[in-house]
Amino acid sequence: MRPTDGPQLALLVAGGLGASPERESALLRARELGERLGDAKLMEALLALVQFRVTQRDFGPAIELAERVLGMAQEARASAMLAGAHFLLGAARFGTGQLPSARQHLNMLSSSSVPVRLPGTAFFSRKSPPACLTVCLSFSAIR
């Protein structure tokens, strides 16, 4: 581990490259750095990569990575990471049509008092959920 690894990881995760190939490369590099820096940084990097995969509609890898973060966050009792993993796992499951599972994960988030902050986004909490959470929960309740 080099002294510059931590700040470099933060820049890679926060990068504003949208859904470009450069963003994907930056996030894969962030995951490599996270592996060296430990679980907390790795979870941050993996959540950013999950978010990227969801926006790319690449739901299989997104679900796989989100489940990994979920397990790590539960073990570490990292409530903010746990909330982020539930949110992204719910979004990915919703994207694949797995509505009961999506609803389960999104309900876990809506019952939490922990604010969620995904890389490159603002904080939100159950008192001010993002529109997509409300839509997902409403739609899955109909089905």
Polypeptide structure, described:
- The protein is built from seven helices and no strands.
- With 143 residues, it is mostly helical.
- It has one domain: Serine Threonine Protein Phosphatase 5, Tetratricopeptide repeat.
- Helix 6 crosses helix 7.
- The longest helix has 18 residues, at 59-76.
- The model is unreliable at 121-129 (pLDDT under 50).
List the helices and strands and how they pair.
Elements (H helix, E strand, L loop, with lengths): L4 H10 L6 H17 L1 H17 L3 H18 L2 H17 L3 H12 L20 H12 L1
Helix pairs in contact: 1-2, 1-3, 2-3, 3-4, 3-5, 4-5, 5-6, 5-7, 6-7
Strand content: under 5%
CATH topology value: Serine Threonine Protein Phosphatase 5, Tetratricopeptide repeat
Structural class call reads mainly alpha
Sheet with most strands: none
CATH superfamily, by name, is Tetratricopeptide repeat domain
Number of helices: 7
Q: Give the class-level CATH name.
A: Mainly Alpha
- Low-confidence spans: 121-129
